[in-house]
Amino acid sequence: MSIDKQYLSDFEAILSHRYDNGADYWTTPDKRLIKGSPFSTLDCVLYLLELGMEPTEPLLKKSAELIFSTWKEDGRFKLYPKGSIFPCHTAHAANVLCHLGYGSDARLQKTFQHLLDTQYTDGGWRCNKFSFGRGPETQYSNPFPTLTVLNAFRFSDYLNKEPALDWAVNFLLEHWTIRKPIGPCHYGMGTLFMQVEYPFRNYNLFVYTYVLSFYNRAKEDNRFQEALKALESKMVDGQIVVERIVPKLAKFSFCKKGKPSVLATRHYHEILKNLGINR
Hints:
Keywords: Transferase. One of its GO terms (molecular function) is transferase activity. α2 (41-51) runs parallel beside α4, α4 (87-99) packs parallel to α6 and α6 packs antiparallel against α7 (163-178). This protein has a domain at 190-279. It has twelve helices and no strands. By secondary structure, it is mainly α.
């Protein structure tokens, strides 16, 4: 199973929530794959991968089948049985499946094309749901779904070859300059954004620098370099220290608030590797 002994209690805790929503693999009988956060289907699959579980394990293969069962012929994923399909739904589902090793799957190839076809005029991805009302700021794309799309695309052959992705990277770099809440869902870069959150669940400094480090368009940009320096300024003895955590994950050993995280620090070393830095 490849999960280190020190994380077995975390693994067992995740499994203890497996039927919380009324069906197997952390979902509901009608396949609401993002219900029950932070123990939804999509959440828990990513936690298990973080802990070191191999994507080939039966539990994760069955979870992948469940996620794919919500895939539509046009490339979108319907994570709720009723209502609209928002770009963030497709982005999160595709991202999880890519982490599970399905980046070359024919269905995800359709999803990638759908995402490229629906890119907004500023380079990001945006829905037409205005929960906070309308204003000048809602004319922008939503930064976190855009970052999630890029997280999925880094597992594809489009990485550093598709100009549309450079456009998306530039949109996110521009947000480092804007800082204020933008997009219909009001993603900003305030106090919460600057707190290091792990595991990656929300829009924050750590996942921002991590995902962008895979894209050549970002690596030499001053805005990315500033973000990376901000992340490094928060490290202690070369380790990532978790500053923010969802309360329901507070007892997990791999992501304790206020403590260095070995698994989080591995992602920092991935950033350095992407930048060609040896430390």
